[in-house]
Amino acid sequence: MTVFAINPETLKNTIALALGEKVKHIGVALGEVTVVVNANNYLESARILRDESGCCFEQMIDLCGVDYSDYKGVGLEGSRFCVVLHLLSVSLNQRVRLKVFAPDDELPVVASVNELWNSANWFEREAFDLFGIVFEGHSDLRRILTDYGFIGHPFRKDFPTMGHVEMRYDAESKRVIYQPVTIEPREITPRIIREDNYGGLH
Q1: CATH number of this structure's domain 8-146, picked from the four choices 3.40.630.30, 3.10.105.10, 3.30.460.80, 1.20.120.10
Q2: pLDDT tens digits, 161-194
Q3: Which of 18, 35, 39, 158 has a C-alpha 20 to 30 A away from that of 58?
Q4: How many helices (H) and strands (E) does the chain have?
């Protein structure tokens, strides 16, 4: 049996009805539904999206963090850190984007959805590692991409491009050591060729 994709506006209305007052904002852009909820409603909203008969989002296919502090001016008036989920319903052939903003910029905390979709485990660890977003209720929240001794969160907009320290193997002490960054910042300007008929192009 072929299951046809539901019209985005119909899906938007279905989700708005299922979540009720938990919806902070819901809209359709480029054929996809995006729903924003408050942090205190996030876990329950995710549960409804998974279990409600008109939603049935059985799979969480992606979760990431976003730092809106310098994002085309978008985050200047609101919260800085956001968690974005992409949910998929295989049975109903539909998708939704779920967004939640952490209320505290200094210590961004949102609930973990790992109990709802175990695929969230490593995604939440990645968002914690790279953005410093804490997922309350996660059973094993630790770094996953950076070194265990790494300081800071490298995907934050205020993290220096070259980092704070570098590590290397020291042959004398026969171990890996950390030291201040030795690379000097430089700007590379590409050479631009401005010749008429360059490469045989007219």
Answers
A1: 3.30.460.80
A2: 777 777 788 898 898 887 777 777 667 777 666 6
A3: 39
A4: 3, 9
Torsion of CA 6, 8, 11, 13, to 10 degrees: -140
pLDDT per position as a tens digit, 28-39: 999 999 999 999
In what helix (H) or strand (E) does residue 136 lie, and over which residues does it extend? strand 134-136
Residue 39 carries which side chain, given as an amino acid letter? A
Q: Rounded mean pLDDT of 53-64?
A: 96
Please give the single-letter amino acid code of residue 21: E
CB 67 within 8 A of CB 157: yes
Residue ranges of the domains in the chain? Answer: 8-146
- Phi-psi region at 138: left, alpha or beta (left = phi > 0; alpha = psi -120 to 50): beta
| Inter-residue contact 92 to 56 (CB < 8 Å) | yes
Amino acid 91 reads: S
Q: What integer best gives the mean pLDDT of the chain?
A: 88
DSSP conformational letter for 5:
P
Q: What is the pTM of this model?
A: 0.81
